[in-house]
Each structure stands twice: as structure tokens, then as C-alpha cells.
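Running this now, will post back.
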Amino acid sequence: MAQADKAALNWTERLASGDRVALARAITAVENDRADAGDVLRAVHGRTGRAQVIGVTGAPGVGKSTLLNALIGGYRKQEKSVGVIAVDPSSPLSGGAILGDRIRMSEHGGDPGVFVRSLASRGHLGGLSRAAARIVDVMDAAGRDVVIVETVGAGQSEVEIMHIAQSVLVICAPGLGDDIQAVKAGILEIAHILVVNKADMPLADQAVSQLKDALMLSHHEGWQVPVLRSIATTGEGVDALIENIAAHYAQLPGELRDHAGRARMRTLIAATAGDQVRRALEGSGNEKIDALSEAVLGGELGFDEAARRAAKLVAGKT
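Update: finished.
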């Protein structure tokens, strides 16, 4: 047996056994793209597609982390194991995650059925860490029944979560203006479930009404997007939320459940390819790219055509 195959088999056995240390180390390897990341990914191949993957997004300040904390408690009452990927803003000094979300979920820290990992976004657009999709697969292969991905909460760029999660929750709060902002940003288009958190605050009824009106502009074939209420600090509305998540998951086409890992990998490959093209084109010193830029600025060439030619230039180097 080749050395790489032995290493992958070792990771497979350790992850399958529920070894939390192995899970933590596997995630670190994948997040930092270490030399053993390939062994980890080989180990999880063929073992994904079992976990239910839920995305949680929304504007800052709506109580996403607090609601997620209550959601974890609800799933643990059902005796389901939970993995959480909390994508935090990056520290401007160290580049690491600020870890605010992990602090808010600390009450589950001693529960072996819950594994919370904070990731730094490291400036990656879309509200997600670049490694998030791969880490979902690692948690999936490690036997987590539910994997929840909480995004940074950056607003318009949050739509990337729809390519990773099977069910996307968009959290809003009354009186913060984020319900209307969500409509402007187009976030409602990716929502499978809308939640008005802090429903004990004034203007909650108005927020629910506005979101229901806005839903007339969005469409999910075969699924009517519900607008739910919750008070995360007391757990009110969490049971109904879990029921609606289960109902959405149950009506998904089989390929979206059975081949979820493949879909996440397609997204990851496309995103990585885009990053590589961007890095190759950034900076000065490339005369051909500079010529394309001048042609666009001078009105001689359209932007889309310039982008296509630039991509071909990068492809020609590989």
C-alpha cells in the first residue's frame, strides 16, 4: 500500500471513530492547506452526503449566533450530533478569526455531540472562508448529523452560502432596517426560511409583514418560503424553526441530498479557479493585461470581452 493511501486510511479510521482531536487536526490541515490536507481529503472521499447542511446568514446585529446557539440545543434534544462552522471576521493584525461566535456558543463546549470551529474569512468575499466547503465535507465524513455554517454577515456578498448549504436561513430583526436592506441586497432570493429574531421587540409585526410582501418577488420551485418569529435568548420559536428546516430538507430532490458533497466540490473548484485567475492578473508588469486595460478605458473594447481575453492569457500559461 502506498504511503499516501496508508495516511488516508489512518485519517478515515480516526474520523470514523469520532476522535475529536483527529477532527480538529483534519480541519486545521484543510484550512491551512498543509502538506497532509490531500490525505484528509482522500479520507473523506466517498463518505460525504450524509449530513444535513444548514446555512445561517443575515446582517450583523440580528442575533445569528444567539439563535444558532439555541438551534444547537434543539438538535441535541433530538440526540443529533452537530458540527458548526462559524466564519468570523479576520483580525487585521494576525489574520486569524476573532472568535466572537465561539464565545457565544461556549455553553455547548463540554458536549461531545457538538463541535464548533471558528474560521477566519481572511478577506474572502461571499461571507465565507475559502476552506468552508471542504471543512463541511470533513465534518460530514466524521459523522455529524447536522452541519451548520454561519457566515460573517457582510450583507450583499452573503449569497455564496447557497452553494454550500442545502437549507439557507436568513435572519432579520425588527427596527434595524435590515429587512428592507435584505430586499435591496437580493439576499431574500437565496432564503429557504426567513426568521424575524428578537420578535419581542417593537415593529416585529411590521418586519414580518414587509418580508412576506417581499417574498412575492422571490421564487423557490416547490417550496413556499415561510416567515417565522423567534426570540433566541429564550428559545421561543426554535422548535418551529427546526420543523421547517426538516420540511424543506424532506422536499429536496434526491440529488441535492445524495450528492451534496459533489455539489460543494464543484463550487470549491470554481471558486479556487477564480482566485487563481485573479491572483495571476493582479499587479502591474503584465504588458498584455495593461494593453487590455487601456483598450477598455479608451472605449475600444468591452469589459466582458477583455475579461474573456484575460482568462485565455492566464490559461495559456498553464
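Strands lie at 52-58, 82-88, 114-120, 146-150, 167-172, 193-196, 227-229. More later if anyone needs it.
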